[in-house]
Write a structure and sequence with these properties.
Low-confidence stretches: 1-13
Number of domains: 2
CATH class of the largest domain: Mainly Alpha
Helix content: over 70%
Distance between the termini: 70 Å
CATH superfamily of the largest domain: MetI-like
Order of helices and strands: HEEHHHHHHHHHHHH
CATH topology of the largest domain: MetI-like fold
Number of strands: 2
Radius of gyration: 32 Å
Structural class: mainly alpha
Largest sheet: 2 strands, antiparallel
Strand order of the largest sheet: 1-2
Length: 323
């Protein structure tokens, strides 16, 4: 009996090896099939996003590559470009007009951004209160947004005209003006700020209003039951839950302010005495007035890099933390 058991085990081994081989083949086939399905799914996904990649490549990366290439050349409007390496960037750091325009743009951004946010937040609170007539006021506040920036600038030039401007006459009668608003650097700066606030505050108001309406009302009711004041509710409920909305609106406002051009070009022309020249305005002058396209490209790259770093820093500060 004992001698027959080893023989039986020996007879069973070929069948066991064959079963293992078959199971291994099935598992490998399943893996290959799953890998093929994964590749097919990925390929389909790449096909879906291919148009977006094509648009980004044609309208962003190709112009960006050309911009970098132009910045490395002395690129006249007419004639053959000449390679000069980093000479345009070296000249940029010695350009006093560029740095003066940069600091003016930074000052403009630091003034206009808080003003828009404070006014937009107050309007959003008013509209969100659902008081009678808020729908009409919301339309009135948002109406200037649909007007083009160039059109709005021309409208304010007419309003501030010292001959026929209605707003000019009102300000003079109140004693706030003694000369045309756009003829003085300080009043021209304030006039542009007033126009931009009137033009853009409605858009920021809508962004904040959408964020406020997404906050559950139960949180405010619970806070009121606990005896929290209005300011405590804003500080502990509204502000934290609007962090993502604040980040979006802040980045759009800061980037838009640093790229300001139309309003200064139309309303002040960079004057008086070049006191209202922004960075983009100086890039425009260097490129299309003095025909230094390579130098303008170098300034554009520096501005783009600065805005990218600034936007990343804002996102780092205002991003939501997943505790």
């Amino acid at each position: 009996m004992r001698s027959s058991q080893p023989n039986a085990q020996i007879k069973k081994q070929p069948g066991t090896a064959q079963a293992r081989t078959q199971s291994g083949s099935v598992a490998m086939a399943r893996r290959i099939s799953g890998r093929n399905r994964f590749i097919e799914r990925d390929f389909a996904g790449y096909l879906y996003i291919a148009p977006a990649f094509l648009v980004v490549g044609v309208f962003f990366f190709c112009p960006l590559g050309l911009l970098i290439w132009m910045a490395l050349h002395d690129w006249p409007l007419l004639g053959k470009p000449q390679f000069q390496g980093l000479a345009n960037f070296a000249a940029l750091f010695q350009d006093t007009t560029f740095w003066e325009s940069f600091w003016f743009t930074a000052k403009y951004t630091m003034v206009i951004t808080p003003a828009i946010f404070l006014l937009a937040y107050g309007l959003a609170l008013l509209i969100n209160s659902r008081a009678p007539g808020t729908g009409v006021f919301r339309t009135i506040y948002f109406l200037p947004v649909v007007i083009g920036l160039g059109t709005a600038s021309l409208l304010w030039v007419w309003l501030l005209n010292d001959q026929v401007g209605m707003l000019h006459r009102i300000l003079v009668s109140w004693g706030w003006l003694r000369e045309p608003a756009l003829a003085n650097g300080n009043t021209a700066f304030l006039a542009v700020i007033a126009m931009v606030i009137w033009k853009t505050v409605g858009f920021t108001m809508v962004l904040l209003l959408v964020g406020m309406q997404a906050i559950p009302n139960d949180l405010y009711e619970a806070a009121r039951i606990d005896g929290a004041s209005w300011w405590a509710q804003q500080l502990n409920i509204t502000f934290p839950l609007l962090r993502a909305t604040f980040a979006l609106a802040l980045i759009m406002s800061v980037v838009g302010s640093f790229l300001a051009f139309d309003q200064f070009y139309i309303m002040t022309g960079g004057g008086p005495d070049n006191s209202t020249i922004t960075v983009v305005y100086w890039i425009y002058r260097a490129s299309f007035t003095y025909f230094k396209l390579g130098y303008g490209a170098a300034m554009s790259l520096v501005l783009m890099a600065g805005l990218t770093i600034l936007s990343a820093f804002q996102l780092l500060i205002l991003r939501e933390r997943n505790d």
